[in-house]
């Protein structure tokens, strides 16, 4: 509708606002390249919303160097806007964890002091980009307390990039003083020594018992070493009846959800571009697929003994196979 409005000029408000809204929707539905193309149209948009959307699109496309430059531009032009700090922390955090880096990243304004792995493209966009990474880390950690009134979560996320372990602990304590709850706090606090394993598990259990992100669960479990807490984790997931969200393409946005019953998958749903139109679903019997619905292809696959197909239904009709022959 927005695209049609821009083409036919019947939008209800100014064209620039419509472009920004459409570009933002593109970044949320796996169409980052189209978002950039829209932002690059004349007249070029350069306000804080446009810079934020541009930086996000560049991150999604893997153009880390330009993303960091855009974040830097936005942070310097609009120092009161917490979105640039939050975007930087969100997009740069996971590569740090995947590379086994310490929770706290030393950032004294030099790329040499950033604990990054040379093999990770996201953290190493070239010497100049690495310097920008170190500069932004230092800038946003230093600015975290100034931005907390706009969004306290800046404190929580800045703790991962803190100058030292003690600085990280202070940031976590400052965030916790707001009385907010977030399962990431338990992960960071456990690693920072602010929580015992037992207390950390008590904190995350209500979150993990419902709907949670698989990557976060994995991060927490990787920190657990005590047998008592390990046993509590095993018991939780042996009878798990909640939902896990997965980011299958690494863009930071969940695109697959898995519902569990008795610790086994019962229903899986996949939406590749998060546009609300499901690509496929899987019905499971105690973790074993029995029915696959290929929504976009208008086809349904029924299985006998996994992984043997028993029946295929599509728009052209139904095809029944001899039991367990395919």
Give a concise summary.
This protein is α+β, with helices and mostly antiparallel strands.
Write the layout of secondary structure elements.
Layout: H1 2-8, H2 15-28, H3 32-39, H4 48-60, H5 64-77, H6 83-98, H7 127-147, H8 153-158, H9 165-176, H10 183-192, H11 197-208, E1 211-213, H12 214-223, H13 227-238, E2 243-246, E3 256-261, E4 264-270, E5 280-285, E6 288-294, E7 299-303, E8 309-314, E9 317-320
Parallel strand pairs: 1-2
Antiparallel strand pairs: 2-3, 3-4, 4-5, 5-6, 6-7, 7-8, 8-9
Describe the protein.
This protein is α+β, with helices and mostly antiparallel strands. It contains 13 helices and 9 strands. It has helices at 2-8, 15-28, 32-39, 48-60, 64-77, 83-98, 127-147, 153-158, 165-176, 183-192, 197-208, 214-223, 227-238; strands at 211-213, 243-246, 256-261, 264-270, 280-285, 288-294, 299-303, 309-314, 317-320. A 9-stranded mixed beta sheet has the order 1-2-3-4-5-6-7-8-9. Strand 7 and strand 8 form a beta hairpin. The chain starts with a helix and ends in a 6-residue tail after the last strand.
Query: Regions with pLDDT < 50 over 5+ consecutive residues?
Result: 95-124
The number of helices is 13
Question: What is the number of strand segments?
Answer: 9
Termini distance? 44 Å
Oligomer: single chain
Instruction: Bin the helical content.
Output: 40-55%
What is the strand content?
A: 5-15%
Mean of all residue-level pLDDT scores: 86
What order do the strands of the largest sheet run in, or round the barrel if closed? 1-2-3-4-5-6-7-8-9
């Amino acid at each position: 509708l927005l695209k049609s409005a821009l083409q036919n000029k019947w939008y209800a408000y100014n064209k620039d606002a419509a472009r920004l809204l459409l570009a933002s929707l593109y970044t949320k539905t796996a169409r980052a390249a189209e978002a950039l193309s829209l932002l690059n149209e004349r007249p070029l948009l350069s306000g804080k919303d446009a810079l934020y959307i541009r930086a996000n699109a560049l991150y999604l496309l893997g153009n880390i160097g330009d993303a960091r430059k855009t974040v830097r531009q936005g942070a310097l032009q609009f120092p009161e806007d917490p979105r640039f700090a939050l975007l930087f922390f969100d997009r740069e955090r996971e590569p740090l964890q995947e590379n086994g880096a310490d929770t706290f990243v030393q950032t004294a304004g030099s790329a040499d002091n950033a604990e990054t792995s040379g093999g990770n493209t996201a953290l190493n966009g070239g010497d100049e980009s690495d310097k920008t990474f170190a500069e932004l880390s230092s800038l946003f950690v230093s600015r975290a307390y100034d931005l907390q009134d706009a969004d306290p979560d800046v404190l929580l996320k800045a703790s991962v990039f803190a100058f030292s372990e003690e600085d990280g602990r202070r940031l976590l304590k400052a965030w916790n003083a707001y009385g907010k709850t977030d399962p990431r706090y338990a992960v960071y606090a456990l690693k920072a020594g602010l929580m015992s394993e037992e207390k950390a598990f008590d904190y995350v259990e209500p979150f993990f018992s419902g709907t949670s992100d698989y990557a976060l669960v994995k991060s927490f479990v990787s920190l657990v070493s005590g047998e008592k807490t390990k046993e509590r984790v095993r018991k939780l997931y042996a009878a798990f009846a909640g939902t896990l969200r997965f980011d299958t393409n690494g863009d930071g946005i969940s695109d697959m959800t898995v519902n569990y019953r008795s610790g086994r998958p019962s229903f899986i749903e996949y939406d590749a571009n998060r546009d609300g139109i499901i690509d496929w679903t899987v019905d499971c019997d105690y973790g074993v697929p029995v029915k696959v619905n290929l929504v976009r292809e208008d086809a349904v696959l029924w299985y006998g003994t996994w992984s043997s197909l028993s029946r295929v239904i599509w728009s052209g009709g139904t095809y029944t196979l001899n039991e367990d022959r395919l």
